[in-house]
Amino acid sequence: MHLALLLCALGALASPLQQQPLLPHLPTPTLKPTPPPYNPSVRPLVLWHGLGDSYASPGMLEFVDMLRDTHEGMFVHSVRINDDLEKDQKAGWFGDLNEQIEQVCEQLLNITELQGGFDAMGFSQGGQFLRAYMQNCNSPPVHNLITFGSQHMGVADIPMCKPGDIWCLLARSAVKRGVYSSYAQHNLVQAQYFRDPKQYDTYLSSNRFLPILNSELPPHTPPPFPLDTLNSLVLIRFTAEQTVNPPVSSHFGSRPPENDTAEIPMREQELYREDWIGLRKLDERGGVFMLMCEGHHMQLEKECWEPIVLRWTGGKREV
User: Fold this and answer.
1) Domain presence at residue 159
2) Among 130-134, 298-302, 312-316, the range of highest mean pLDDT
3) Which residue of 13, 33, 106, 249 shows the fewest CB atoms closer than 10 Å?
4) Containing domain of residue 71, as a range?
5) CATH of the domain at 43
6) Structural domain tally of the chain?
7) In angstroms, rounded to a whole number, what is the distance separating the alpha carbons of residues 103 and 107?
8) 124: Cβ–Cβ under 8 A, 6 or more apart, which residues?
């Protein structure tokens, strides 16, 4: 495929996949008092923003304030690929994911407040990226991993086009043909977790990120830090999900190649049954929680996130 066409196609792919800025219903943030002093007895929290957002967008900053109101004195770090907000946002679209994960491993290792371990919360694609950190580096270690609307089994398609939207239709066709090209797999972030069940062999041979993260390549070598290293894995799916396709990917599910509407749930996945990444062991221990939140992709209402934050973050740091 011509490079320019592929770039245009992935740009069109980006528009429907791009999440709204986190908590868009909130008013414009006002100047707030200095947060309470860091309390070293409270387990810290690390966030990784989603597609189209940045580490310090107004929505992310407002959410961090609400987290600190919930757990007074909790240290919160928002992962960034670049200190410049515009470049950090761009890194959600363009870049080599394996290099980005390595960068974050070094970033978290050098934050003094995290050295005793932390809880992690990923929004949309940030969820599988934090899982990649945990499975490959985990120093400092993750205690509880929480993911909102993440694509743990990848995306198999882009959202359906509106009738008559010729550019969207062209983009869908182009992405199908070019997503596993060398250029896409080294430079386009979403291509690196595109998992088309109708092109599964091509996915395994060409995709440089997700098959390795999920140990799908024979001999299915477990990651350095399997998921049963976690205390809890909390997987949140949205009831009216239209961005993540298939929506069950947020619960470690996928769809069969012969049926675009059927779902293969987590416990029927080969990676679960054969326990390639420690998911089954963690689940049998009672450490996997599959939750539903009302609304569309990343429509984070307080009724959704607050009970999760109260239960799985802000615990007493283990010393």
Assistant:
1) yes
2) 130-134
3) 33
4) 3-26+37-129+136-312
5) 3.40.50.1820
6) 1
7) 6
8) 19, 50, 51, 148, 149, 150, 151, 243, 244, 297, 298
